Amino acid sequence: MTNGRWQTDEVCEGQGVEEMGAHEIERLQMERDFIANWLADLLATMAVELDREIRVKLIEGCGRGCYNRFSFKQDIAHAGQGDLTKLIDAYRRTFEIWQKGDEVHIRYGEVSPGCYCPAARAIPIIADDLHCECSRATHQAIFETALGHPVHIEIRETVRRGGKTCHFVVRVGISHPQL
Q: Is 69 inside a domain boundary?
């Protein structure tokens, strides 16, 4: 093991290509299962030890990280820089989107086959699944980067929360929710 990662030649030395491939697949499956279980344990501990507001803030940080990690999300924001109409047009390349008054609806199709996030698919679905806050925060990062001001985004429905699709509503005329 080097720097905490197995090197293929250390694990598979002396094995044929077919054996090495099977061994590599098994190793990757074990790593995937370990990470999924670790993540499930972390989220379960957070649910017991932290109040909802703190858990949401942590998950939102992951959503902003997702925005920063994937160029296609940054490309949407860049294409809509300073112009809501251009932002909506850029979103249409990947998402179903429409505007109604000061609300912009983002939906993952009328019916979604499941959650698109690999991290979420690796963990069990629970009531009021907070993972959906990650997706909400990603869309918030896109809108706020493009428009240059805070926006409020409501989760209308998600597959992980029992809905038939994921549907977010951006209130472009309101920067913070009404109290």
A: yes
The sign one gets for the Cα dihedral 66, 69, 71, 75 is: positive
Order of strands across the sheet with 103-107? Answer: 96-100, 103-107, 167-171, 152-157
CA pair distance 102, 100, nearest whole angstrom: 6
Q: Are residues 60 and 132 in the same domain?
A: yes
- Name the residue range of residue 139's domain: 52-171
Are the C-beta atoms of residues 19 and 12 closer than 8 Å to each other? yes
d(CA 81, CA 85) in angstroms, rounded, equals 10
Measured distance CA(126)–CA(82) in Å, rounded: 38
Whether 111 is covered by a domain: the verdict is yes
Nearest to 59 by CA among 115, 130, 125, 120: 130
Tokens standing for residue 10:
């250390």
Per residue in 33-92, pLDDT (tens digit) is 998 899 889 988 998 999 999 999 999 999 999 999 999 999 999 999 999 999 999 999
In contact, 151 and 134? CB cutoff 8 Å: no
**Does the residue 78 lie in any domain?**
yes
pTM to 2 decimal places? 0.80
Neighbours of 115 (CB within 10 A): 20
